Amino acid sequence: MTVMTYRDALNQVMHQEMERDSNVFVCGEDVSGGAGGTSGEREASGGIFGVTSGLLPKFGEDRVIDTPISENTIVGLAVGASLAGKRGIAEIMFADFLGLALDQTMNQAAKFRYMSGGKAKCPVVIRVPYGAGMNMAAQHSQTMYQIITSVPGLKVVMPSNPADAKGLLTTAIRDDDPVVFFEHKAMYGRKGEVPDGEYLVPFGQAALVNEGDDATIIAMGRMVTFAEKSLAGLKDDGVNCDLIDLRTTSPLDEDTILDSVEKTGRVVVVDECPPRCSVASDIAGFIASHGFSSLKAPVQQVTAPHSPVPFSKDLERAYVPGPAHIDAAVRKVVSYK
Amino acid sequence: MTVMTYRDALNQVMHQEMERDSNVFVCGEDVSGGAGGTSGEREASGGIFGVTSGLLPKFGEDRVIDTPISENTIVGLAVGASLAGKRGIAEIMFADFLGLALDQTMNQAAKFRYMSGGKAKCPVVIRVPYGAGMNMAAQHSQTMYQIITSVPGLKVVMPSNPADAKGLLTTAIRDDDPVVFFEHKAMYGRKGEVPDGEYLVPFGQAALVNEGDDATIIAMGRMVTFAEKSLAGLKDDGVNCDLIDLRTTSPLDEDTILDSVEKTGRVVVVDECPPRCSVASDIAGFIASHGFSSLKAPVQQVTAPHSPVPFSKDLERAYVPGPAHIDAAVRKVVSYK
Amino acid sequence: MAIQQSKDQLLRAYRQMKTIREFEERLHKEIMTGEIAGFTHLYSGQEAVAVGVCEHLDEKDLIVSTHRGHGHCIAKGCDVKAMMAEIFGRATGLGKGKGGSMHIADFDKGMLGANGIVGAGGPLAVGAALSAKLDGEGRVAVSFGGDGSVNQGAVLEAMNMAVVINAPAIFVIENNGYSEHTGADYAVGSKDIAARSEAFGMKTIKADGCDYFAVYDAMAELLDHARAGKGPCTAEFMTTRFFGHFEGDPQKYRAKDEVKRHRQEMDCLKNFRNSVATTGALDAADMDVIDEEVLNLIEEAVLKARAAPSPSPEEITTDVYISYQ
Amino acid sequence: MAIQQSKDQLLRAYRQMKTIREFEERLHKEIMTGEIAGFTHLYSGQEAVAVGVCEHLDEKDLIVSTHRGHGHCIAKGCDVKAMMAEIFGRATGLGKGKGGSMHIADFDKGMLGANGIVGAGGPLAVGAALSAKLDGEGRVAVSFGGDGSVNQGAVLEAMNMAVVINAPAIFVIENNGYSEHTGADYAVGSKDIAARSEAFGMKTIKADGCDYFAVYDAMAELLDHARAGKGPCTAEFMTTRFFGHFEGDPQKYRAKDEVKRHRQEMDCLKNFRNSVATTGALDAADMDVIDEEVLNLIEEAVLKARAAPSPSPEEITTDVYISYQ
Ligand SMILES: Cc1ncc(C[n+]2csc(CCOP(=O)(O)OP(=O)(O)O)c2C)c(N)n1
Ligand SMILES: Cc1ncc(C[n+]2csc(CCOP(=O)(O)OP(=O)(O)O)c2C)c(N)n1
Ligand SMILES: [Mg+2]
Ligand SMILES: [Mg+2]
Predict the structure, then answer these.
(1) Would you place residue B147 in the very low, low, confident or very high pLDDT band (cuts 50, 70, 90)?
(2) Fewer C-beta neighbours within 10 Å, C or N terminus of chain D?
């Protein structure tokens, strides 16, 4: 075990996997930075969030590819190469820009295996920093994972801590299906214990972060960290909750969810998305269909409001679901008669 | 009242509204057809589904604009013009192609009013033929409305019959917010009674197509027609259902849903989308959160499977939710003890 | 300065073009019977392009195709019977009947798929070319696209991307004068496709796409360039389609006699027979034999496809991971 | 053949450029205090472009801007205090603090918004130009974009679209040598932006973006063309930015002394003062007075913004229809 940041854990995986498999390559805007221009240093940035730093010096320009601003083609580049034997890792600088790359993601990557009757394999990973909390306003703060989760053929990964970041990205790179990997911008600096060496976390297996009989809190990505914060205060008042970290929203670990619901009968789903067709509604709907007999109270959905992400600090702070919202929702669900 | 097709109802509205307001214009691929080339006839197609036919001869090339194959720019063209005082109607030939135009739809049209603090107005309508049933395979058959419904700032319209097609499109064109208007490809030929003259159907008001106390069926778009088919057989066996046609998935008519659920306590949601983050899950989740106290049985979600749309006739027929699936779900929900 | 081709080469090229032609002419008839569902875009008229390009390629080279992909598939070596079965939506099809006409692919043959999204092949081909570049074995990737596809941002981005990463990608633009019901002279603002690829910094050749020899010679030059690592290239081939955009298209946008005239004046098969006759490279008799064999092959393909079973319902949820059942 | 401009015109142009410069230099300091949140991209160094373009426009003309939009806003007449308040995230901002630096807009002034999506302005500007065309009053729409934006499909599609529908759109490309941390000579495969717009069939002029007069004269020619309905045009202006891509950028990708050198050799304000001195068109004293006034205006704008209230929480759900509460 080594204590490192979420960013460094992701960076370490790309070093390890590119070392291990010469078919793995990385492409995106400024993944190294410094190409062309009067170039002081060749690797001038290592990714705008620093996640790909150190790759260029080690693996060279052929496998660490700085690209023009062409999101759809960045994904297409990785997809096309992956259909032809490589394992491409495409970085889309902000998840919001998937709006430009959805065709290659949804209509191409997601469907090749199916449309070809299983002949095609598309082992591509699309890394996307997502989420609000850094005052980047409406076009640089969206969640997007609800949209990608709705697309059959895509796997959706949302690590909530450095160890999972490492284990899930390793699994993603080795997976033969296209994976969209959601990294919360506000978590890159988060530190945690990370297993040394090779470490894989399987898809479709949620983590039971905390155990308790009073209610089930289901969260993903950064929302897990907020749910954790709310646990302490609740515990002080004698409220003990299961906290389920989905880790991957697709595939979904249905068993872990249903087992916990059967035990507690009271559910709070926490999701950074706006409410409509969100993962929160998806899980709440799933429970209404498959866990109904165990339900003792209305499922509480803690989400952002149905509006774009506001810029102003105070507004954004109030916009993003936080520990206070979760705390209130849990108290509501446990007190329901 | 006049009996006409879904296609003709839509076509009539565009004629009426372009007549009424000189700011309204239409743009898209082959909306007239016949531009350039050796051009036998100038209006050679009137839209690949014929929905925009007759507009060019009447309103001319300035307001009926054939475009190159540039989906993102087709939407951007309508959005930019609408920000500058016009009311653009952009046709995206297949809803699937929103994958190329999502930036202009989600990051631009949906957010201008909010980001500008209310100064901007973006009265654009994006018309998108959607859905499976015509053996057009995985890239020409998707639903897409679950994705658009998840985006704050966009209104989502899904007429299930010719009268609503007329009333809702008229409302959409006059609405000052961006509207994505979903027309099911397989419904264009559907005939029905349509009010003459000016006719508006307000957004956010579902239609109670059928009344019954045993269960609530909630559907939208083409799924309403399948739900209607299933009603007769159920009635013969003494099962009477409320059938709610949402008409618009965003805004959502929450009251009509909750009133019916309170009455029946048993719900079937029918949605052509794959299950994850679908409108079916959205409604089921909404009921689990806001209608729980009236629920007497698990909410049944009738959706497509979580796979792309297959080409082969037999596979596609089995893929799309139909009357048989609905019938089975209703019987299950009413028999639940 | 036409390149010398052996008799065998010429006979194979003729057989390929003829196979595509008869495949499409037969489909045109079959579709009228209503047995074939969905969208079908026929390639008749453009055979010289697919064959003139693919005769230079082997299975390790990669191609990315379009909605009008049957010709590219046959030229790249896809099994004609398995293709026909796919178009009929049968379990014996190349994609088990799950893809259909717009999604025929054979990855073992380096055929990365027809594509229903106009322009999507551009980025995919540059990715395939990147794969070839990383392997360093002189392979190339060819992106087929139409005159309409050069107005799609994806293709324009892909051209720039290919130049920036120096990928061995070749953009083959088949200019048949129309994108659906709209003339290329309208939708291509500049009316000049070759100038676009040149402006992106690519070696570009424009040639007659109804002349197999012109296509073959142009591609020889571009492939030398790309295989040598000198960068991506573009070819614009002027051609025509003998049928509507898709089956069922009334083609009101075309002059009444246009197709008839083109079938007389721009038929690449006629052109081929004429030129080999004048040069004496081939005997008509040899080609007549091929014609016979091709017709039999197509007949057999149709009969087999008709007789083949539909995929079983379980196939709906195979070839994709499934969650939330 | 520089166009004659009156003393008043020149003084106003100088004031506009100076206002942009001081606005940005002051923001650079304010951002260090940590009071301003989010992403801020400063325009210092490029003032001659925004002003040389917008001095030709009136409020009925439309512009679409970028992430680096402060200069365009000021040049198009947005209220400096309301802009500063917006960047501070205050209720008194142009967007009530809901948009911020990347989304400043003032529709009453024909300023259709800065934009966080590189390239998105291209299609929007063509749409705005279409609106102008339909109104038939000779209005135009200007799309500002950087060297990086010409690799974005949306911009390339928009250029073709503008030509096809003959919209009075003018694409102003500000080539400051970098897109974020990548050189334009790398990301623009052809290393030649003007050739692209020409290949799309547009009249194109390339000029020195650090020389107000060069920009002004080039735009005069293009605007005559566009307003006369002769079609869209493109201008490529060579310029530089004096700060990092965004505030906090260590700029490792630039030669150590590059910014220092550019501030000495490529400062459009210095250039302006020099040329009006040699021609004797303006007295330094008049400009000194303007410098003074501008500094006071910026100081006042900052003080007012700091003192202004944040938007109230209810604003989260206003200016958007709300469903599913
Ligand atoms: C992104 C996208 N937009 C529109 C269509 C509908 N469509 C299919 S083919 C076609 C025309 C393509 O023209 P061209 O590229 O010249 O190819 P051709 O059909 O002439 O072979 C169009 C508009 C599509 N399939 N994909
Ligand atoms: C679609 C999109 N991709 C990437 C980014 C991140 N980004 C912001 S500015 C920028 C560089 C833009 O370069 P250029 O167009 O030259 O404008 P400049 O910053 O030089 O003014 C990038 C990559 C973005 N905002 N939008
Ligand atoms: Mg064509
Ligand atoms: Mg730049």
Answers:
(1) very high
(2) N
Pairing of strands A125-130, C62-64: unpaired
Ligand 1 contact via C67 beta carbon (within 6 Å): yes
CB–CB of C153 and B72 under 8 A? yes
Asked if B38 and C258 come within 8 Å (Cβ–Cβ), the reply is: yes
Mean pLDDT within C154-177: 98
Evaluate the CA torsion angle B184, B190, B194, B196 in order and state its sign.
positive
Ligand 1 contact via C180 beta carbon (within 6 Å): yes
Residue whose token pair is 């490589």: A86
Q: For ligand 1, is residue C15 a contact (CB within 6 Å)?
A: no
Q: Can you point out the beta strands (E) in chain D?
A: 62-64, 141-146, 169-175, 178-179, 182-183, 203-208, 233-238
Residue nearest to atom 22 of ligand 2 (CA): D180
User: Residue range A41-54: average pLDDT?
Assistant: 94
Q: With 70 as the cut, is the pLDDT of residue C325 above it?
A: no
Q: What's the gap in Å between C61 CA and the centre of ligand 3?
A: 25
- Please list the residues that pair with D205 across neighbouring strands: D235
Residue A310: closest C-alpha in chain D: D98
Torsion of Cα atoms, A109 then C90 then B94 then A89, to 10° = 0
Two structure tokens written together for B105: 């739809």
- Strand B125-130 and strand B155-157: pairing? unpaired
Report yes or no: A279 and A299 within 8 Å, Cβ to Cβ.
no
CA of A28 to the centre of ligand 2 (A): 13
Please state, rounded to an integer, the average pLDDT across all residues of chain C.
Answer: 96
When pLDDT is cut at 50, 70 and 90, the band that residue C324 belongs to is low
Work out the minimum CA distance from C193 to partner chain D, whole angstroms.
8
Tell me how long chain C is. 325
Q: Within a 10 A sphere around the Cβ of D122, how many other Cβ atoms? A: 33
Using the 8-state DSSP alphabet, how is residue C249 labeled? -
Catalytic status, residue B140: yes
Q: How is A89-107 classified by DSSP, letter by letter?
A: EEEPSSGGGHHHHHIIIII
Pairing of strands A125-130, D62-64: unpaired
Considering only CB atoms, which chain A residues are within 8 Å of D184?
36-37
Residue D166 CA, ligand 4 centroid: distance in Å:
27
Tell me the one-letter amino acid at D92. T
| Gap between the Cα atoms of A152 and A104, Å rounded | 14
- The answer to whether residues C24 and C17 touch, using CB atoms and an 8 Å cutoff, is no
> 3-state class of D24 per DSSP?
helix
Picking from B176, B129, B177, B130, the residue whose alpha carbon sits closest to that of residue B30 is B129
Active site residues of A: 140
User: Which of A106, A285, A308 is nearest residue B285 as measured by Cβ atoms?
Assistant: A285
What type of residue is A134? Answer: M
Whether A253 and A228 have beta carbons less than 8 Å apart is answered as no
Q: Are D126 and D167 in contact (CB under 8 A)?
A: yes
- Predicted complex ipTM: 0.98
Please give the structure tokens belonging to residue A142. 């969206």
Chain C contacts of D192, Cβ < 8 Å? 199, 201
Q: Name the amino acid, one letter, at D1.
A: M
pLDDT of residue D325 exceeding 60: no
Chains B, C: CB contacts within 8 A come to 177
Q: Which of B183, B78, A78, A245 is nearest to D134 (CA)?
A: B78
Rg over CA atoms, chain D: 19
Return the closest-CA partner of residue D21 out of D48, D39, D40: D48
Decide if pLDDT at D1 tops 60. Answer: no
Compute the nearest-CA separation of B56 from chain A (Å): 30
% residues pLDDT > 70 (chain A): 100
Closest CA to A5 of A161, A136, A146: A161
Query: Per residue in D87-100, is it b (16+ CB within 10 Å) or e — as a string?
Result: bbbbbbbbbbbbbb
CA separation for the pair A247, A49 (Å, rounded): 22
Cα gap D123→B70, rounded to integer Å: 10
